[in-house]
């Protein structure tokens, strides 16, 4: 059974005129799916719709046996009740809290919150920076805090909008390894927006290529293109094994 199953439609006002974002996808437990595509393709909008930060025009979102959104049944779960972690490009850290306090706030109320915060500080190479406030950190450091804070909520589902984009290459490589480790260790299912083919190949089981709201390809990273449009728009999700890779996707 997929951890996340959705079909979302949303009118976009793009530089090329009106378009419709129209994406359907089912993610298996433990899967990491990368979303790539040119600027304006609708990648961030898709994550915002999944998080409930924007209203779709139609479709549904089901996650962990729960309905988050269903246009036909008029169901809508507000963003604060969707158990997911997300890192968007603006980080949105609390400016008046230290790094440690930002993480502790997110972890509050969970068993083992203290050790979890310490573990995440170490994993994201933030221990030295724990007493600082976000304003005293570089963009890349803030991005690492945002990632650690998203994990501090112990979500099962993680939405990442280019979480490593602001990092220099050596740090980026180290944190890709850390991300792969936490993805496995914390039993996450993840959607990752990335423009970096090497990063996608390294981290993702599948990649969805978007352009102007439409899915151009879905399949294993760096594989030959697989046509994935139906009636010029909706993507066909490849059933388990059909994409020829080792991804853990089961039939819908
Ligand atoms: N709420 C909205 N309603 C309608 N159109 C929107 C909305 N938000 C963004 N758009 C438009 O939809 C298109 C897709 O935007 P989006 O930010 O999702 O693209 P993206 O693929 O994430 O791009 P980038 O790689 O530059 O971040 C853009 O042309 C944008 O202007």
UniProtKB/TrEMBL annotation:
Signal sequence bounds = none
- Organism equals Hymenobacter coccineus
Looking up PANTHER family in the UniProt record yields: ABC TRANSPORTER I FAMILY MEMBER 10
Superkingdom as given in the UniProt entry: Bacteria
Return the InterPro entries for the record.
AAA+_ATPase, ABC_transporter-like_ATP-bd, ABC_transporter-like_CS, Molybdenum_import_ModC, P-loop_NTPase
A matching Pfam family: ABC_tran
GO terms assigned for molecular function: ATP binding; ATP hydrolysis activity
Q: Which UniProt keywords apply?
A: ATP-binding, Nucleotide-binding
Q: Does the keyword section mention ATP-binding? A: yes
Cell inner membrane keyword on record: no
Domain (ABC transporter): residue spans on this chain: 3-237
Q: What is this protein called?
A: ABC transporter domain-containing protein
